[in-house]
Amino acid sequence: MDSELPHNDDLSALFNSSVYSHDHVSVRSPRVFDRYFDSSSSSSGDDDESRPSDSVLANKRLDNMIQFLDRKLSTPSHNNEDSGQRFALPEFVAKGGGTGIFSLPPRAAVHPHRPPSLELRQHPLRETQVGCSLRTIVASSTQLWAGAENRVRVWEFRDLYRGSGTDEGEESTPPFRESVTGVAASICMVTDEGSSVVWTGHRDGRIKCWKMNLGTSSERFGELFSWPAHRGPVLSIVITAYGDLWSGSEGGFIKIWPWEAIEKALSFTQEKRHMVVLSVERSYIDLRSQVTLNGFSNVLTSDVKCLLSDNSRAKVWSVCSLSFALWDARTRELLKVFNVDGQIENRGDSFTATDFSLEDEVKMKILAGPKKDRMQTSFGFFQRSRNAIMGAADAVRRVAAKGGFVDDNRRTEDLVITIDGMIWTGCSSGLLVQWDGNGNRLQDFQYHSFAVQCLCAFGTRIWVGYVSGTVQLLDLDGNLLGGWVAHSSPVIKMVIGADYIFTLANHGGIRGWNFTSPGPLDSILRSELTSKEFLYTRIENLKILAGTWNVAQGRASPDSLISWLGSAASEVGIVVVGLQEVEMGAGFLAMSAAKETVGLEGSSVGQWWLDIIGKTLDEGSTFDRIGSRQLAGLLIALWVRNNLKSHVGDVDAAAVPCGFGRAIGNKGAVGLRVRVYDRIMCFVNCHFAAHLEAVNRRNADFDHVYRNMAFGRSSNLFSAAAGIMSCLFFVLLAFLFNVSLLACLWFWLAVALGSSSAVQMLRGTNAIGAQATEAMPELSEADMVVLLGDFNYRLDGISYDEARDFVSQRCFDWLREKDQLRVEMEAGNVFQGMREAVIKFPPTYKFEKHQPGLAGYDSGEKKRIPAWCDRILYRDSQSALASDCSLECPVVSSVSQYEACMDVTDSDHKPVRCIFSVYIARVDESIRRQEFGEIMKTNEEIKSILEKLCKIPETIVSTNNILLHNQDTSILRITNKSGKDNALFEIICEGQSTIKEDGQASDHSPRGSFGFPRWLEVTPAAGIIKADHIAEVSVHLEDYNTLEEFVDGVPQNSWCEDTRDKEVILAIRVHGSFTIETRNHRVRVRRCFSVRTRKVDSALNESGQNQANVLHRSDYQRLSGSYDVVDHLRNLHSP
């Protein structure tokens, strides 16, 4: 690490005579900051606006570098604390660490196993996102829009590399604008650059329209207009090739909002727009009602998860979980219905499905039994009870299925269209399926066993986002080009913008990955960012108080808690407490096991302990409890000092029973996982097998806990469904068979034995949506792990009297040699790689209650040998002792205090406490993002590579004017003159005009999302042109048709399409494989009805150029892809 950073002799070279003003004091700045204080920079409004932020960031850079210099130039060991505090205690390190499941997680300034990324929005703490987390994103050519649970947010791409000046929470992102709050949760979004608006679909069933041009005001913005589109949530939304807005909802409902109605609403001013919003709301076309007569409605009743517009063929795909429907975007006719296996669905008897709510569905199932029983009295009591149970079970199954717990791994999660016209779908099994544009299944690919969450395509590449957080990259043939773990949670959405692929994680973080990744830019960026690590690295220091106590089912006095925790908590930022044997007994353990099976935990006694400890810590004023977990008699809780709360969150809990059958919590562990300064820390409270001879069982308990501790939050829906079933079954059993409560408890004990593993299996299946794969334990992924509790390791080879003598003489060195835990750690059999401060306090077990001093050791009949049962161990990021804290070794800890509170007599165990001094290296994302942008803009090697990769191939088109009448078809030829690069093209309509009597175009107006008018068919509207090849595009005039006006889904009026001469401007956008920048060709296409216009155009066509430019279907000919073709067309002029 040190070799990558400046040597001490080189550090002075970073400084020069640049001076800046800071609090009216002249301060010299390092040379690396000159670019942020360049007096010759432009004085434009944008620059002036960015200066305060850049100035603050420059100051932070200076602070970070001074901190770096202090670390490099001071004494090598920073294990010493500040002056006036105690030195770090010596430690014992267990063998066996650093390999296998005990390997340290890889950490670096730039992650070694993935491309460098642009951190647009850092992973926010979950606790700060309640009611406002981001759920979807969409990009235009200049903006990134994000839909949250109560607002929408907009970033300008020109601000991607700008810092915010602070690093607190959301402020570490680039500057952004937000809408007014109170907006229902956004589920789907689509951009319409032709109209410069963004459409969003919301949970309350509304569709909202937002203006892209937000101006320069920093105030929150509001919607242009909105209307209630569906009774249920708007699950999907898309704009077709003809500018219509399609939306999908629950129950298979698809509605079309015609462009003509939307255009009218957009043309009105804000003051008058409300007058036409009602007409938009009532203008919809209900496709379900349109196809009922055709007999397809029975297969179109599932939720419409996705809608996809195939603009190249003017079709629309609607996607349910296990089926697809293919529609004609122009005529709005249903073309085909087929399932995920590609089999065409047969037409059946039509029916109208009723959209019941979840609660109504459960009520109907449960109430159907009694009504039927009243009609059929021949059923006996037990038969009726059986029916009630089976009805409840069926209701729970339906509830679980609606929540996704009954999983079909063939379920389609997302789909995307590629530039070559192929459709790709991703399944919950991780399967990728390629389809042609007509819905024929071509081939399958499987590169990952986790569920696909989202797909994105651009150029010749396809990105796949998985629930595991992995992103994979494929080419158009389905070959795997690379993959990496992009986020620590599922990747739920991906979009293209500003030459980046942006990924949105389920936790709300957004990262940008360069188009070329994985590629040659990655190694350059990684090297450059690593060399500047000292500019954006900040070292934080905090103290953690960890305490463990086996309370032996007793209760502590306030004085005991003050002695144990209160006296030591004055200077710490985090307090974690683990208790054992809070409550025991067969009945309690059985009930606890039963509650665990339905997602419930805790007890009144456990709550008493939380309250009394919170009172000791001055909870509410000084500390706040942010998490706790109880498993039978085990309890763990964590408190954070108020001034640290903004940096601590993402609290997850876990429990692993190790008792009878690995299902009962009399032995086992409970844990909390928390993120502190963006680093993961795990605290685990353990209680292992008792008795002197049970060393191997204790080792096995640790191994079981370490491998199986899975952190997470239980699903309310799952708990509710399981709870309904469990409560019904419990009550019915007691009612039918008059069983005693104790018998029921033992019944639940038996249920727990089988259900504990079943619940884990169910959670695992739901997590990945596919077959389980063995992975590293979650504890292995943490930056710091603290294990505390009653480990129950005893002293071997020593008698009771000998132990008492050594304790009274405080000869702990010799006693430690008899310690079973130390022996097992030395052999590498348990707690591999963990560290423990050298014990210098008396054994903490076993004592007579309320007997003070060392005379209180067990003097009864058994005379248990004193032992250090209660311990606190840990590991951090250090692969070797005395490692420097850096982004490669982000958490470095030492123990400043490790002792037992021998004056506490409320239990047969003594409480133990340990104070850790922890150094944490964190990234200042504002500075790192600015450095990232500076590297991309100034590095000559990167600029050279991008210039080659992002080159737009030279192309020519065969004409710039096309005249159509009488259903003509003309062939537009696009020639790729590049000798080696493919050219990618897309054809859009920039707008339509009406031709006046003098032949001039007027009333030019764009169509939604640059869609085509209904009289024009352009096929294909997108594609790939190989080097020295020609693409032929059919431009066809459709026969004028009858237009219908719909009101509330019912056709009301009809009229013939406008027969006046029309003209559109087609823009042929050409780009390369690695850039969104385009070179545009424009072609004027005129639809002619009038005789006068035909004569004018006939005269024009007498010229040879126009005859060459207008090629009718009779002139259609396929040309070869050789240089001869290019020579044949070299005289054609590109507009």
TrEMBL record:
<dbReference type="InterPro" id="IPR001680">
    <property type="entry name" value="WD40_rpt"/>
</dbReference>
<dbReference type="Pfam" id="PF22669">
    <property type="entry name" value="Exo_endo_phos2"/>
</dbReference>
<comment type="similarity">
    <text>Belongs to the inositol polyphosphate 5-phosphatase family.</text>
</comment>
<dbReference type="Pfam" id="PF23754">
    <property type="entry name" value="Beta-prop_IP5PC_F"/>
</dbReference>
<dbReference type="InterPro" id="IPR036322">
    <property type="entry name" value="WD40_repeat_dom_sf"/>
</dbReference>
<protein>
    <submittedName>
        <fullName>Type II inositol 1 4 5-trisphosphate 5-phosphatase FRA3 isoform X1</fullName>
    </submittedName>
</protein>
<dbReference type="InterPro" id="IPR056455">
    <property type="entry name" value="Ig-like_IP5PC_F"/>
</dbReference>
<keyword id="KW-0812">Transmembrane</keyword>
<dbReference type="InterPro" id="IPR036691">
    <property type="entry name" value="Endo/exonu/phosph_ase_sf"/>
</dbReference>
<feature type="domain" description="Inositol polyphosphate-related phosphatase">
    <location>
        <begin position="540"/>
        <end position="924"/>
    </location>
</feature>
<dbReference type="InterPro" id="IPR046985">
    <property type="entry name" value="IP5"/>
</dbReference>
<dbReference type="InterPro" id="IPR015943">
    <property type="entry name" value="WD40/YVTN_repeat-like_dom_sf"/>
</dbReference>
<keyword id="KW-0472">Membrane</keyword>
<dbReference type="InterPro" id="IPR056454">
    <property type="entry name" value="Beta-prop_IP5PC_F"/>
</dbReference>
<dbReference type="GO" id="GO:0004439">
    <property type="term" value="F:phosphatidylinositol-4,5-bisphosphate 5-phosphatase activity"/>
</dbReference>
<dbReference type="InterPro" id="IPR000300">
    <property type="entry name" value="IPPc"/>
</dbReference>
<dbReference type="Pfam" id="PF23755">
    <property type="entry name" value="Ig-like_IP5PC_F"/>
</dbReference>
<keyword id="KW-1133">Transmembrane helix</keyword>
<dbReference type="GO" id="GO:0046856">
    <property type="term" value="P:phosphatidylinositol dephosphorylation"/>
</dbReference>
<feature type="transmembrane region" description="Helical">
    <location>
        <begin position="728"/>
        <end position="753"/>
    </location>
</feature>
